[in-house]
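Take a careful look at the protein record below. Let me know whether the structure tokens fit the sequence:
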Amino acid sequence: MAIITDQEKIDEVLNRSIDMIYPTKEAFEEMLKSGKQLRIYLGIDPTATYVHLGHATNYIILKRLHELGHKIIVLIGDFTAMIGDPSDKNAMRKRLTKEDVQENLKTFKDQIGKILDFNDTKNPIELRFNADWLSKLTFEDSVNLASHFTVQRMLERDNFEKRIKENKPLYVHEFFYPLMQGYDSVALNADVEIGGTDQTFNMLAGRTLVKAYQDREKIVMTTTLLENPVTGEKLMSKSLGTGIALNETPTDMFGKTMALPDEAIIQCFIDCTYLTMDEIKRLEKDLKKGANPRDLKIRLARELVTMYHSGKDAQEAESYFVSTFSQKQRPTEMPELKPRAYDIITVLVESKICKSKSEARQVIEQGGVKLNDVKVEAFDTATATGDVVQKGSRFFVKIK
């Protein structure tokens, strides 16, 4: 496989959406220029049924490296998901069952395949599962793994230290997570691992184990997290149930993009799109000169829907957004539902506008539901054929 060593392409890999490179950026640049095919991987735990735009940043970087000719591995943490990653958490994560993991995995490859080409036969992208080796480790193996780390090092994690100070439980099994993720690097014989800054501790544990078991260097690339630059809050989080999933409908993806804070627009262009940095710098310059942030968000939403659906879908989603939100019009086309019962709660749940009856009641209490443009006040409100039920400004259903 011919390895591309074009300096401009390498510079984009080294700098775009990158926070830190360990041990140094120069060391990784030298490897990229060597002409050797590198084994590069990214791990993701299937703790939810979707992949969001925050994850997409890393897959876009993998795409760039794949286009340079390197071997790309997408590692599904089907075993580690059952333990729970304690990274950036102030309480123990819920441990998932095998059934939970398998359910969450059903559409992962399809979603990631919107970015990575799993059909490339010349340089196939590998999809691996860490249960293949972690489930086979003996207790003796686990003791050997643990012998490479001290308790002091484990307690260097800010969230662990904070939990101890706040007298919150810190479970022994949580120490095993970085050991297992670290061992993934050994099992994959990886040259490079990519992950968000919240994964730095875990990835550096892998660097330690690669040195110990294989006596060689492993590059760690930490990527920027999508955060609100003003509040510091994550824009995308599976554990918090927030963000924009890659399997959103075009209209939902467009609408959720338009709801992002203005101050996050440029970072989203950098981390989540294929626009060149020169073009993004021009947009940033326009923004500083007084361009309407809404116009830039429309451009961003259009780019994202085109990436994950099509240009036609992007045009239709934009038209829907403009007519529904900007002009406050009811959409001309909307889903239709023939419910089992015609009370408002049943309609909201069966149309999937609300996930549960409790959520439907909560939204009604908050004044977020309308029936034929009139706010719904009572839980037992009846609907009829031809009625239009609306939640918020984006969700509509017509009763059949």
